[in-house]
Structure formats: structure tokens, C-alpha cells
Amino acid sequence: MKKITLLLFLLTFQNIIYSQIISDKVSVEFKNANLKTAIQNIEQASYFKFYFDEKWMESDSTSITKQFKEVRIADILEDIFQNTSINYFVSDNKIILTNNSIIYNELPDDYFGIPLEKDENGAPIVPIFYQQYDSLKKTNTRNPNKNIRDIILIGKESKNQKKKIYTLSGYIKGGKSRAGIANIMVKIPNTEFSTVTDKDGFYKLQVPPGISTVETETFAYDKVTKKIMVFNDGTLNFNLIDNVNQLDEVLIKTAKSKNAKAAITGVTTIDAEGIKNVPLVLGERDILKVALTLPGIKTAGEGSSGYNVRGGKEDQNLFLLDHAVLYNPSHFFGFFTALNPYTTKKVDIYKGSIPAEFGGRLSSVFDITSKTGNFNKFEGEGGIGPATSNIMISTPIVKGKSSLVAGGRASYSDWILKTLDDEDLKNSQASFYDIILKYNHKFNANNDIEATAYYSHDKFSVSSDSLYKYSNRLATLKWNHTFNEKNKGSLILTNSEYRFNIDYQSPSVNSFDFGYKINDTQAALKMSYLYSEKHKISYGISSKLYGINPGYLRPENPESTLIPIEIDKERGLESAVYVGDNFKISDKLLIDFGLRYSRFSALGKASQRVYEQNLPISDATVVETKEYKNNEVIKSYGGFEPRIAARYFLTDDFSVRASYDKTYQYIHLLSNNTTQSPTDIWKLSDLNVKPESAQQVSLGFYKNLKNNEYELSLEGYYKKSNNILDYKVGAELLLNKNIETELLQGEGKAYGVELLLKKTEGRLNGWLGYTYSRSLIKLNSQFNEEKVNDGKFFASNFDKPHDFSAVLNYRITKRYSFSSNFVYQTGRPITYPIGTYDYGNAQYTVYSDRNKFRIPDYYRLDIGLNIEGNHKIKKLAHSFWNISVYNVLGRNNPYSVFFVTDKGQIKAYKTSIFSIPIPSITYNFKF
């Protein structure tokens, strides 16, 4: 008892002395002083002596400019250490510094069995001691060690801090670019504490005081585990390493995960940075043209602007640029994509299992994301080629908070037309340009916005008297908000417009202006909820208002014999609600559920014909014409669109996936051309045109070989469609007030097998793709005039059973590489004349069944030499040269086959686009 009394007396006496010393006042002045200099100044101005580890000051960037006159030493120390992790303890004239932690000069209150001090909730306040972990190393967050047994000290301990839960935040970055990675789970194992990163790789995680283990969980990167000692709120950043070796020169990878691990089928991500070595026409870096080398994605022919995905029509693909619809993604008759390659970050292509957040198309979604600007420095990139020039610049607006990306592209391509094997095209002219702006602003850790504006314009003349013009315009505004570490959401507003004009200047009085326009405005709310480690839930709602001007014809001369035409406008409202759950049942089994309900209403003001039932739709079967007022509902359609996908691991690197999707489409592209044309028109479902629908099942096997050096996938699919639009023979689609009389709606089916082999490392890398597929349509009716091919299934215009592609890159040295691109496809279907007959003193041509024959098969080889600039770090710009030859074999591939009657004989003619090798040199630079 005497010893205890003596101990208490000594502690009390020490506290009295401490109080006297700490109350001593000091006068000192700092001028741009760092912490170490400030400490030395205090020592010179007083009798205090500091004790600390100088390593704590090695990375110190503090700059202190202050003057203190007769100020308590405690107040001075509080001021200069306020924004640091340094704590202090004063004993006599000694000041002992500590990093993060506090030195306690009193034993805890319960040392003698007395209860601890309570906080406002009645819980005991426990000091954080880590002596029990002294067998482990301790690491400061400024210089973390990779050793899993190291302790990283988080936050600055305070005697006044009484919270039971603290906040750990930071960024998770990875890859060669060290960019932020979205959707990475951060958690404390075996607890309820977990969160996921946002689109910039930022996370906020609740953590308890004391020691914990924090780890990341992701398929695409190595798992990282760190031990932390939490004293207060603090930061901890992660740099992740890919757990697969990506392509050195050509990068195509499974979307957001490794080949064998994702749940959804038929999804691919193409990174714009990784396609610079793929030789394409005129050396243009084109992210969507690279997509055509992948299984399941085709076009009807060279120079076609449409895409056919797994047997679907051109209008069954949803192209989104930063969430807004891009109605025509092509320039220059389809030879170029309407996207600046230097402002485009990546495209996620969903052709099998489409996430529930997307709707409105049957076949695929091309989700295109533009680049986010640099928040800290000015940079740029561009390219100069034989047909186009591109430029992209990025600059911070408010450093660290906001950035702007601006990109532009223009063509000087008329000379190319002179080389084509078509007299009309040789005498033509064409040009295009596109511009894009993207602005990002971070308000705080929980709120940021991004805005995109885009415009593209094409004009061409296929004769001396007609000028064709078409343009895309879109704008998006997105607000991202983090409610807490489990709940996040985005509010998205978009507007898109596509229009075309034909300006016909005739030597006679019959000059005219013909035009068309479609516009849509959408609002969407998308939410994500991390219910647990096993359930990642997404849900949302969206609504889109369509407005279509189907066309007008306006004579430009008062004396014209042409009659002005104005087709009634169309309006419609498409809305949807969805919910999805990524459910990890076990380490082997992962299921992705999705349920979407969509509803479409055709709106007035409009006139709609009603036709007699059980009779063909024609002018002769009209019963009445109904008039609908402004915003009155003409007809509504809707339905549930379930989606489910599952993945099961057979071994660690071998998985099987299956999926089922149902989709609806309420808008249709009308075209009686073989391939998509800029003058094709969009039409909404209404009283007489039903929405299209489709169901698709997929099954795939995915295997990684030789330590992920090779990726192998084999996918099969079957798709059945209803109400697919087609047309009567000789249909007139432009400026037709009663377009439904020219339309047919029937069944479609498509099936196929897709094989993809990728080599992801080594001097030789690239991929081989092969697809066997069929795309068939049936137009059957009880009326002969609505039947095609006797009501049996026949090949669609884009049915190409065999499709093989090989994209290979061989790295000769670090600066030189050789690339090649080989494509083979079955010729597309065509209808041939098979004879003639005489009737009434006139001769008529007899045609075969629709699409019974095929044009010759298509194949092409492109080669390229790629030259990187020298690898000096300090230089004005980094350069990259691409020397390529398109169609190096000079293959005269047919674009179309047509027939002409000459002197009573039917003669066939073939049109080719590029029938000779096309060399090009492109210079790319980056600064």
C-alpha cells in the first residue's frame, strides 16, 4: 500500500511540473520552414529539447510562415503539427515526438479495477495501445511496405477523440496507366465492414479503432492484404497488379474481368489505347472496325455503315456515347467510325447477356466511354493520316478538381474517291468532321459531375446535282453521388439528334430540299447497393421521349411542278424500371440476375388508319382514320425482360457460362437497301406496327492456358425473334404517309458457334476468331401478297455462315513491330434473275426466290509496320508511325452485284470498293 501511495504521489508531482513547463511561453518566428527547421527554431528560442526519428521528416513538404510572441509551447506544437501525423509528449524540458500514437503518462482508469471513463453513449473510452503487436513491423502510410506483417499506421491519435468507428478512404489504382479502378471491393474480412470503389477508384470504408486487416477483392488484379493500426480517420491507397498478362501491342480483353471468371456471356471490352497496331483502311485507328474482327460481329459488306451482331439487323444495336444514343456511328459511307480515336477510352460490347440497365434493342449494346481529362496537367494526343487528321487536348480547369477534354477530327478525302472502281464514286466528293467536349468536376469525395457534348457532320455528292448531308448531335449530363460506402447513384440526362438532308439542284425548275430528323431526350436514375460481399444489387428507372420528323419535300423554285410534302410527326414515350443482383453463391458459382420492365406509348398528335381485320393491309382495306390529340396515347406496348447469367468453375482456370435474355425494341430502321444508308429512316411502333421482341440463350466454355498466356473461349447461341420488319417487293419508304402498307413483319431465328483464341504475351501476340452462324427470316401470311419464298425461312441479307479473322502482331524490337490482319467471309445472299417471259407485247424478268444465291466470298489481307519513337522521357512529344497496306493482295472483292438487260440479254456486273492495294502512312504523337 505504501508503494502505491508513493507511486501516486510521484505521478501527481510529475503532472504539476508538466503543467508548469507546458504553460511556459515562447517567442519564435518561422519563414517558409519545414517541420525539421521549425523544431530547430524552437530549440534555439527556448530550453526545450526535441527527440524524434528524422525519417519521419524525409518526405515532409510543409511550409510554415508564422510568428508567435509569448505563446504557450503546447499551442505552438498544436499549430505546426495540426495537419501532420505527429503527436508530442512533454517531460521536463524534453519534447518526445511520436508518429500517429500518443504517449500516455497515466495508467488506464481500470488498472486498479476502477471503470473506464464513459462516452456519451455509455461506452468505455479505451486508449489505443499496440505494445501487444511489437513483434510486427510498423509502417507509416507515407512509405508502406509490401510485407503483409507490416502495420500501417492510420490517422493521428487524439485524447479528445471518442468515436468508436473511423473512416478510411483512398484511391485504388492499377495497370500501366495507374488509373483509378472502379468496382473493386475493399473489406475487413469476417466483418460487416466493406465497400466498393467508384468510377474514379475512390473508396470510403468504416473501420474500428486498433488493428485490422484490410484487403481488396477483384478478379482482374492480384489480391492485396494490408494490416493497419487505426488511431483516427485517415487515408490508404492501393496500387494493384494485373493477375493476367495483357497484350503488349494489341489489347482486347474480357469486360472488367479475366476470361474465365465473369458471369455474363458474349461481352468484350476493347481498349482504344491497345488498337494502334491493327492495320485498317488508310491507317485510321478505329475502335469499332477492330470489333469486326471479333466473332459474332459483322457487316453486310465493305463500306457498309451498319453492324450485324449475332444475326441481328443493323437497327438492333444500341450505340451509346457517354450514355447518349449515337444513331449513325459511321462517316464516309461506313469506311470510318464517327468517333475520335484519341478521345475514346473504351467500348464494352454486350452481344450475349445484356445487363438489365440497358434496353430498347434486340441484339447488342455498344457502350462507348470517352476519356476523362487530366486534373493536374496539360496534355494532348493526335494523328495525321492520308485521309484524316485528329487532335485531342486535355487540361485542368481547377487543378485537382475539374478537367476538360476537347477533340476534333476532319477529313480531306476527296482524292480517295478517285481511286475507287466505280464511275459514280470517282466523280463524287465527300468530307466529314466531328468534335467532342467533355468536362469533369469533383465537388467533394461524395459528389462529382461529368458533361459531354458531341457533334459530327458529313456531306457527299454522288452526282453533280445532289448534295447529301447528315449529322449526329448529342449531349449528356451525369451527376454521381455516394450516399455511403454501400449506396451510390447517378442521375443522367441526355439528348440525341440525327438528321439528314438532300439538296437537289436541277437545271430545270424542279430543285428541292428533302430532310428528315429524329430527336430523343432521356432521364435516368441508376443506383447500386452493396448489400453484402455476396450480393451486389443494381436498380434504376429511365424514361425517353422520342420526336421524329419522318420527312418533308420543299420545292425551291416557285415555278416547280413538284408538290410540297410534309409527313406527320411521330412521338413516343419509352420508360423502364430494372433491378439486378450479382449473387456470389460460392467461390465456384456466380449468378447475375436481372429483371427489366419496359413500356412504350405512341403519342399524338397524329392520324392513324384502321384496317379491316383478316385482310391484307392496303389502301383498299381501310376502315377508318382516327385522329389523336396532342399527347393522347395512340397505342401502348410493354413487357417483362428477364435476364439471367451464370458462371461455374470446373477448375481454377476453366469455367462454363450460360445465359438467357429477353428484349423488346420499339423503334425500327426502315431501309430497302442491301446495307444501311445515311438516308434510312427510323419509325416508332404505333397502331399498325408492332414492337420487335427476341429471346436468346447462350452457352460457353472459357479456358486460360499456360499461366494465362493463352485465352480460349467457345460460345454457342440460339436467338428467336418476332415481328421483324421487312418490306414488300418494290416498297416505297421515303415520304410515304401510309408506310405500314409497304411493311411486312415476320419471324427470325439466328444461331451460331463462336471460337476465339488469344495470345496475350510474348513477341507474337494477337487473336484468331472463327464464327459459324446462320441468320434466317420467315415472312408468312394467309395472303399471297404478304408472303415471301412461300412463307418459308430464307437467308437474311447479312447471312454469312463462315467468318474467320486473324489479327497478329510480332514485336521485332521494343520500337519496331509488324502487324497483319486477315479476314475471310462467306459471300452475302442475293436475288438473281433466272429468266424472262413475254406478256402483252412486253418482256418481263423472272427472279429467283429472295436471297437464294450468294455473291463471291470475301477475303482480305492487310499488313503494317509500326515504329515507336525513341523512349527518352524528356522530349517535346512521343511519336508513333504506322506504315500499312490495306488489301495487300489486291483482291477484287465484290461490294454488290447488279443486272442490266442489254439487247434482250441479262448481264451481271460487279462493283468493288477497294480492288487494289491501298498504302498509307500515319503519324501519331502524344505530349
TrEMBL record:
What the entry lists under InterPro entries is as follows:
Beta-barrel_TonB, Beta-barrel_TonB_sf, CarboxyPept-like_regulatory, Plug_dom, Plug_dom_sf, TonB-dep_rcpt-like
Location(s), subcellular:
Cell outer membrane
Q: Name one GO biological process term.
A: siderophore transmembrane transport
Q: Which Pfam families match?
A: CarbopepD_reg_2, Plug, TonB_dep_Rec_b-barrel
Where would I find the TonB-dependent receptor plug domain in this sequence? Answer: 266-361
Domain TonB-dependent receptor-like beta-barrel: where? 427-888
GO-annotated cellular components = cell outer membrane
Topology relative to the lipid bilayer, per the entry, is: Multi-pass membrane protein
- Superkingdom of the source? Bacteria
Sorted keywords for this record are: Cell outer membrane, Membrane, Receptor, Signal, TonB box, Transmembrane, Transmembrane beta strand, Transport
Q: Which GO terms describe its molecular function?
A: siderophore uptake transmembrane transporter activity
In the record, the note on similarity to other proteins reads: Belongs to the TonB-dependent receptor family.
* PANTHER family associated with the record: HEMOGLOBIN AND HEMOGLOBIN-HAPTOGLOBIN-BINDING PROTEIN 1-RELATED, TONB-DEPENDENT OUTER MEMBRANE RECEPTOR
Name assigned to this protein: TonB-dependent receptor
